[in-house]
């Protein structure tokens, strides 16, 4: 078994001081008109409905019942009561959330309708903030991965309109001994505009300075109370699985040891019934397949004198020999189809 090797990571975003007001602001992109709310797919876990329902899916950070209120089709922050977290935990996720800032034109900077979407028990935050005509530090504006990455574009809508985030998040991976193997990654789409492009997070997000990773699993989704009655609706989550690995022993072929004569009789150019041709050629001490429409030579594994298998592709050749022992036809089966060819 291969030995896991810990990967280094930076305790803070490279290049920029955190919360630097001189860090460039993202360019403006006008989002297209989009119909909200967006209906969840069939496998989604709906934590807040399109009408703001679902308060029972949440609890206070203390574990008490969630102290926020449902009002006029939205789940609304009750300022001063603290954040809420989902009762259910999640790992790698796609999260859709719609939010609307509180009407607070008298406030500015980080004080204007500030909230946040938290992942993995509060470790990673996508900032929620009214930044319409409201300058703040770039890594703390709406759709920022807080304190780390400003959005690539400013796609915010006016404060009297609903906003939407689609967040794609992959947890960090740790060895059995707790060493970091792979940093967390995040992609964010704001109002239909890609604003965070598979960013590699240097650590957990927090005010003033990102913290180094500590081993953890998944966790609950959180919404922040930062003193403003920000509104939420239509928050749904899809669990994203790991890609399925092949079973043990998959694609391990028992290669036959062909004689030079058995190899040489297979070498040649074969005309396909559909047009075009295959070429079987010597590749070192073995055999390879080439085709005129693709570059490179594909290694072939001989299973017997009349059965050949591509080494890295689920493609197989069955060879028919005539009475004299010469090749009369090859049949190449791949992807559910069979292509027949004869020697030229």
Outline of this structure?
The chain has 344 residues and is an all-beta fold. It has one helix at 260-264, and strands spanning 45-48, 58-60, 69-71, 74-76, 84-90, 93-100, 115-119, 124-128, 163-170, 173-174, 180-182, 185-190, 193-200, 219-223, 231-239, 268-272, 277-283, 286-291, 294-304, 307-310, 315-321, 327-334, 337-343. Residues 51-238 form the 3-keto-alpha-glucoside-1,2-lyase/3-keto-2-hydroxy-glucal hydratase domain.
**Major sheet summary line:** 8 strands, antiparallel
Percent range of helical residues: under 10%
The counted number of beta strands is: 23
Please give the CATH architecture of the largest domain.
Sandwich
Please name the fourth-level CATH homologous superfamily of the largest domain.
Answer: Exo-inulinase, domain 1
The helix/strand series, from N terminus to C terminus, equals: EEEEEEEEEEEEEEEHEEEEEEEE
CATH topology value of the largest domain: Jelly Rolls
Specify Rg, calculated over alpha carbons: 29 Å
Low-confidence stretches at least 5 residues in length (pLDDT < 50)?
Answer: none
């Amino acid at each position: 078994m291969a030995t896991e090797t810990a990967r280094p990571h930076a305790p803070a975003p490279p290049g920029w001081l955190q919360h630097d007001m001189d860090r460039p602001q993202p360019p403006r992109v006008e989002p297209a008109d989009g119909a909200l709310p967006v209906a969840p797919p069939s496998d989604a876990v709906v934590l807040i409905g399109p009408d703001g329902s679902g308060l029972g899916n949440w609890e206070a950070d203390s574990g008490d019942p969630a102290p926020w209120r449902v009002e006029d089709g939205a789940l609304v922050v009750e300022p001063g009561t603290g954040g809420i977290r989902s009762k259910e935990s999640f790992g790698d996720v796609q999260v859709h959330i719609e939010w609307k800032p509180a009407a607070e034109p008298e406030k500015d900077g980080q004080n204007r309708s500030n909230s946040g979407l938290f992942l993995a028990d509060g470790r990673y935050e996508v900032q929620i903030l009214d930044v319409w005509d409201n300058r703040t530090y770039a890594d703390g504006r709406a759709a920022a991965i807080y304190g780390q990455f400003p959005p690539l574009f400013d796609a915010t809508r006016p404060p009297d309109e609903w906003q939407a985030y689609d967040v794609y998040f992959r947890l960090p991976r740790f060895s059995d001994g707790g060493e970091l193997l792979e940093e967390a990654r995040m992609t964010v789409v704001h109002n239909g505009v890609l604003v965070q492009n598979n960013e590699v997070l240097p650590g957990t997000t927090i005010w003033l300075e990102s913290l180094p990773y500590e081993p953890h699993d998944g966790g609950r989704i959180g919404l922040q109370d930062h003193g403003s009655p920000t509104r939420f609706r239509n928050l749904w989550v899809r669990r994203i699985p790991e890609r399925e690995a092949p079973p043990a022993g998959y694609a391990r072929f028992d290669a036959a040891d062909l004689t030079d004569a058995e190899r040489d009789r297979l070498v040649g150019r074969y005309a396909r019934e559909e047009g075009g041709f295959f070429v079987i050629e010597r590749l070192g001490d073995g055999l390879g397949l080439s085709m005129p429409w693709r570059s490179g030579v594909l290694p072939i594994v001989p299973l017997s004198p009349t059965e050949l298998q591509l080494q890295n592709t689920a493609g197989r050749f069955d060879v028919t020999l005539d009475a004299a022992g010469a090749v009369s036809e090859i049949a190449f089966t791949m992807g559910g189809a069979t292509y027949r060819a004869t020697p030229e």
